[in-house]
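Changelog note: in this version the structure field was regenerated for every chain. One regenerated record is shown below for reference.
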Amino acid sequence: MSAQSDTDGPSDQSSSSFRLGRLLYGGVLAVMAVDGLRNAESRAQYAEAKGVPMPEVSNKAAHGLLLFGGVGVSLWRLPRLAALAVATFFLGVTPMMHDFWAADEPEEAQQQQIQFLKNTALFGTALALLGVASRE
């Protein structure tokens, strides 16, 4: 067994833990995307309330991007493009939809901050996968 530095990343992109992690991460993203597309009307209304331009189109485009990224990460097909799609989704959606700093009610601010932080972690994971895919 060889020692590996902390900055090298996975030595084998097909390792069981890496594969399971990709399946879980990408699968959850795909489920989130399908839910967003199935509930497009209510999601667009919420987006409109948040000031998103062209909310119907923006919602479908964003969730389509997330679906592409989630499936791509899960299957490790076009991995750089898939991870970039996921990162782009979270980079665009998170500050716009979870602007906890603008909430009037403390409970709403807390809920939005939780969602903001969750999305930030998911964005970070997408960046990490982008780094792994770029080294392939």
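Spot check on this record: The CA atoms of residues 69 and 86 lie 5 Å apart. The two ends are 22 Å apart (CA to CA).
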